[in-house]
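Possible regression after last week's pipeline update?

I re-ran a chain I had predicted before the update to compare outputs. Posting the input and the new output here so someone can diff against the archived version. Not blocking, just want to make sure nothing changed silently.
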Amino acid sequence: MLPVIALVGRPNVGKSTLFNALTGTRDAIVADVPGVTRDRQYGFGRLGPVPYVAIDTGGLVENPTGIEAQMRVQTERAIEEADRFVFLADARSGLTHQDEFVARELRRAGKPVFLAVNKAEGMDPAVVSAEFHALALGEPYAISASHGQGLEALMEQVLAGFEPAPVEETANAAIRIAIIGRPNVGKSTLVNRLLGEERVIASDQPGTTRDSILVPFRRDERDFLLIDTAGVRRRSKVEDVIERVSVAKTLQAIEHAHVVVLVLDAHEGVGEHDASVLGLALQRGRAVLIAVNKWDGIPMEQREEVRRQIALKLDFVPFAPFHFISARHGTGVGELIADTIRAYEAAMREMRTPELTRTLEHAMTVHQPPLVRGRRIKLRYAHQGGRNPPRIVIHGNQTAHVPDSYARYLANVFRKTFDLYATPVQLEFRTDVNPFTAGKRERRDSSSRPGKATPRNPGSKNRRAEAQRLKKKRLKAQRQKEGREAPKSR
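New output (post-update):
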């Protein structure tokens, strides 16, 4: 499972800025006002030697009142979930009494703490970290979250000892399926239906499942590993101490899975949290299936409207197939597992370079790339850059100017041609260096070779023109001189 790293500190020290820098997103709101972050914010960390889950927290204060008391509860829950902490302080403000309070709270947790002194750009690291040695939390790291200074060295130390999980890509590896969704939508019932036995507890009470349960099984000569997760609901409604880790566990399950099945309740439709969790699965590039459960309880005259509403709210994943099922009665479950195998095979599919290049050429023939400053974008060839999700690397010139709309068009063409079912297609555009242009530029800048044009030496080819220019200059100066002396002669 992925390590969980919590960012903790007093208000307005740059925790949200650091969270955005580590995750490569703008999910956390950043402002120069204390108390902007209130709830916990989760994201997948990208900066560092291994993947991890980062948690952004609100400011921790000693004597909270009003909303600060609720913010402190959220931060304490993040402390319980995390494996390690990054304790942020402000280099501009120096060591404060609130920093000492946060240090005491983190020591009480009994987990590794790494002290980062933020906003240290343009300052001497030794001078910045000197007074923070009084916290006795080890060597402080002088960083600048807004400028990205010192973050790589910090995360190398924070993640030391963690090893990336081995990726199984062989044909005989078990297909890992993560079942995610809100509480009481029928995730455990679906798992039991797939297994054909009461393997996990299922009841009408929300929050029955409190941890991610790994269930291996075999079906149609294929090995599967089901990951039944705890329901993810709004953090403001989470009161049970054990249920507090559900979000982090769900993110870990998404990272570990090949295929993600989002289970919805047909009676409740799509909630804001459903779309958020689905977006996290897409961010990790996982194949996605959407199972609308309890479909048997929807009257026939209302089904078309329910279909339309769900499709409208999930229009940002047009490639994800919908399955309208009844986990209790087994309706549609067989088709769901068949599509899971198809999605896994699509995510792990190998695509040959000649076939990718021919598909790219055909797509450009049907719909040419746009013009940039009067020049047509040229895409020359494509090759596969990875699997799960399928990554296609496209080489050409002016690729930095390829519009998002044209990139989506190409992704859809590749998905249709290679049957990349239910999986996102990631495109990477690379601009190749022209060796002829680079050589000419290099020769023009070289002053060591005789006869080449430089600011001081116009070059053998331009000497005649330079001589004529100097001759004209001398004649012009001579005429000006004669013009000034003419009145004196009269």
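Follow-up from reviewer: compared with the archived run. Residues 463-489 form the longest helix (27 residues). Marking as no regression found.
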